[in-house]
Amino acid sequence: MKLKVALLPGDGIGPEVIDEAVRILKTIGELCDHDFEFIEKLIGGVAIRDCGSPLPVETLDACFASDAVLLGAVGAPRYDDLPPDKRPEAGLLTLRRALGGYANLRPVVFYDALAPSSPLRPETARGADILIVRELLGGLYFSEPRGFVVEAGKQIAAYNTLRYETYEIERVAHIAFQAARQRRRKVTSVDKANVLETSQLWRETVTRVAASYPEVSLEHLYVDACAMRLVTHPQRFDVILTENLFGDILSDEAAVINGSLGTLASATIGGAIDLYEPVHGSAPDIAGRGIANPIGAIASAALMLRYTAHLEQEASDIETAIRQVLDAGYATPDLQSEATRCVVGTAEMGQLITEALAEIVDRRRAYHAV
Ligand SMILES: NC(=O)c1ccc[n+]([C@@H]2O[C@H](COP(=O)([O-])OP(=O)(O)OC[C@H]3O[C@@H](n4cnc5c(N)ncnc54)[C@H](O)[C@@H]3O)[C@@H](O)[C@H]2O)c1
Ligand SMILES: CC(C)[C@H](C(=O)O)[C@@H](O)C(=O)O
Ligand SMILES: [Mg+2]
């Protein structure tokens, strides 16, 4: 299998965690005889610094010349006072829109070994297995008009628009129902239909799409109630389907199930080129110290093998390797608890997962050789 991957490490801990994802991909490539080719480009604050733009043309060209994009994170405190369209984050949003992926899949899987790191009681968190399907190209993030109102040189107001076209809701809803068909066959559609017209359209449209999937049950939940139930009853959810901003917020909240945002991965599909990125940001508070958790980035690489390369065995081997290393009691500082036997840094965690992966692949080879 040949796969060309554009690497965009970005800012803060982005390069640290992407290094480990690449280490895993190279290892699985060698072990299973796949030809993975990498091309690295700038995005975010480092791209503003070196090229004057958060998404240089050269970066976008490299993405379009690749089969998939693997991104670390963007954002740095020194750019925080810039207007939205000049910030590092604008590079990521422009990239998402250009690549065209509208369905952002964010799996949240509870790891038994992490029960002590979760602020939730073990009996509440255990067994939680949720797929958040976040609409990624519409809503408040992209709708026009938007801007500041300036009078006499002073900003007196600001506004954004929340707009959804029916087709935008339909296409992401299909992805959610198709995913639910392969899982526990339940979709929870999350909106604010008691207040917002866009949510009323969302609810009507999702209900209509559901008719094509009679084997999948559909429930509607208001976003405020969903936020509460995510932490009181996470096991009740299978697929959560929601709009852009609600999905952004709910996915960070869902990270508490495992105890760290550093574990969550994402895949963005439906466009010209698929985009993979951990859910977390550039974490300026820990950047440069070699302690960031690389699991979200490594698990994003696994999703890339599953969705873009259709290498299901390799993807699930990486996921098994992550689980085994956690079960053995290793943890990065964000996951540290009384159950941790050994606290490790980013590179050590990546190395341990790589070693576990090599053993898993060898064991299966030996088994099939008998
Ligand atoms: N996809 C992205 O590129 C992305 C996502 C979210 C935030 N951001 C940007 O990142 C910057 C920082 O934002 P923030 O602090 O609100 O969110 P963040 O996700 O960077 O960090 C939130 C908290 O989680 C911790 N954390 C995050 N990832 C971790 C990891 N892998 N290992 C260990 N701990 C981890 C951080 O140390 C911090 O305490 C901002 O500029 C923001 O816009 C980018
Ligand atoms: C950095 C930011 C633009 C981004 C988003 O809001 O989509 C991030 O928070 C995420 O969750 O991927
Ligand atoms: Mg976010």
TrEMBL record:
- Name the residues that bind Mg(2+): D224, D248, D252
By sequence similarity, the record places it as follows: Belongs to the isocitrate and isopropylmalate dehydrogenases family. LeuB type 1 subfamily.
Pathway the protein contributes to: Amino-acid biosynthesis; L-leucine biosynthesis; L-leucine from 3-methyl-2-oxobutanoate: step 3/4
Q: Which organism is it from?
A: Pyrinomonas methylaliphatogenes
GO CC annotations on file:
cytosol
EC class: oxidoreductase
Q: What is its EC number?
A: 1.1.1.85
Per the annotation, which location comes first and is thus the protein's main one?
cytoplasm
Q: Which domain of life is it from?
A: Bacteria
> What gene name is given for the protein in this entry?
leuB
* An MF annotation (GO) of this entry: metal ion binding
Entry function? Catalyzes the oxidation of 3-carboxy-2-hydroxy-4-methylpentanoate (3-isopropylmalate) to 3-carboxy-4-methyl-2-oxopentanoate. The product decarboxylates to 4-methyl-2 oxopentanoate.
* Cofactors, names only: Mg(2+); Mn(2+)
| Annotated site location: Important for catalysis | Y141, K192
The reply to whether Acetylation figures as a keyword in the UniProt entry is: no
Q: A single GO BP annotation from the record?
A: L-leucine biosynthetic process
Where is the protein found, in the record's own terms? Cytoplasm
**Which proteins does it associate with, and in what oligomeric form?**
Homodimer.
Note whether Oxidoreductase occurs among the keywords: yes
Which named protein is this? 3-isopropylmalate dehydrogenase
Q: Which reaction does it catalyse?
A: (2R,3S)-3-isopropylmalate + NAD(+) = 4-methyl-2-oxopentanoate + CO2 + NADH
UniProt keywords, alphabetically? Amino-acid biosynthesis, Branched-chain amino acid biosynthesis, Cytoplasm, Leucine biosynthesis, Magnesium, Manganese, Metal-binding, NAD, Oxidoreductase
